[in-house]
Design brief:
Elements: H1 8-33, H2 35-40, H3 45-65
Helix pairs in contact: 1-3
Length: 66
C-alpha cells in the first residue's frame, strides 16, 4: 500500500519488507534443489551443488543486510 507523502526511507523499508518472502522462498527452493547434487558426491556435481548452495545462502544474507 503506497501512501502519499511517504518518506524515501519508509518507502524503501516497506518495499524491502514486501520482497523478503519471495526472495527467501526462491533461495530456499534453490538450496533444497541442489541437495541431491551434493549428496551424489561425484567429482563434478558435488562442487557445483556446494557452490550454488553456498552462493545462494550468502547472497540472501547480503540482500537482507544491504
Amino acid at each position: 500500500m503506497v501512501r502519499k507523502g511517504m518518506s524515501i526511507r519508509d518507502a524503501a523499508y516497506d518495499a524491502g519488507r514486501r520482497r523478503m518472502v519471495p526472495i527467501f522462498l526462491t533461495t530456499a527452493t534453490t538450496a533444497v534443489g541442489v541437495v541431491p547434487m551434493i549428496v551424489a558426491a561425484t567429482n563434478f556435481w558435488m562442487p557445483v551443488g556446494v557452490s550454488i548452495f553456498a552462493g545462494g545462502i550468502v547472497s540472501l544474507i547480503l540482500v537482507v543486510t544491504v
